[in-house]
Amino acid sequence: MNDCQHFQPLTLPTGEPLPNGCVLVCHNFFDQIQSDRYFQSLLNSLNWRQEKIKFFGKEIDIPRLTAWYADEGKLYQYSGIKMIPNPWTPCLIAIKEQVESVVDLKFNSVLFNLYRQGTDSMGWHSDDEPELGKNPTIASVSFGSTRRFQLRHKIDNLGTLEVALDHGSLLVMQGETQHFWKHQIPKTSKIISPRINLTFRVIKATRG
User: Residue 149 carries which DSSP code?
Assistant: First the structure.
């Protein structure tokens, strides 16, 4: 990670550093004008898909829309879903390069999630698929409505940590975070407008 005075490390409620990982948050990483422009562009131009998963033997829609953009041949699989990459667009490259300017990494892929309303969500999980390799760095950008991002340790009872990811924010998970922590975007009963989340990744290998 390059030096960035706007990044704040996520800590335990006691103020102690996060054990077994590193999570950094930068609010307003993208300014209001950039964030508004990118949100509208992504909402209207991406190849959004409604994926399905099997749940107790039944096929159901996942509670959000998704899109996968990456270098050629960089496939991604999770929860039985196999994602074929769409090619990068100038808009996506501009966002990626701004994120890469503060992260010492060149990303080759990005997973999009569109949370259309408060009932759209993402359950507890870790980004630990084999193709991401050991100790992956995940850079998460948010545009649109603010949503709660929660984390909990897989082993120790440290309670649920929470941070509000607002319009234009950037959250980076590094080190052992995916081995020891799970995260989610919970449902909310509040009436809220859509949110687009971009999680930039490095695919190191692909499964057949």
Answer: E
10: left (phi over 0), alpha (psi -120 to 50) or beta: beta
Residue 128: pLDDT band by 50, 70, 90 thresholds? very high
**Could you count the other beta carbons within 10 Å of the beta carbon of residue 56?**
5
Neighbours of 37 (CB within 10 A): 14
Which has more confidence, 82 or 153? 153
Contact 152, 159 (CB under 8 A): yes
Q: How far is CA 166 from CA 74, 156, 204, in A?
A: 29, 28, 30
Torsion, Cα of 196, 121, 66, 173 (10° steps): 70
- Are 124 and 182 in contact by the 8 Å Cβ rule? The answer is yes
Which of 139, 138, 111, 130 is CA-nearest to residue 204? 130
DSSP annotation of 113: E
Give tens-digit pLDDT for 74-92.
998 888 888 999 999 999 9
pTM exceeds 0.90 for this model: yes
Say how far apart CA 177 and CA 136 lie, in whole Å. 8
C-alpha 144/C-alpha 91 separation (Å) is 16
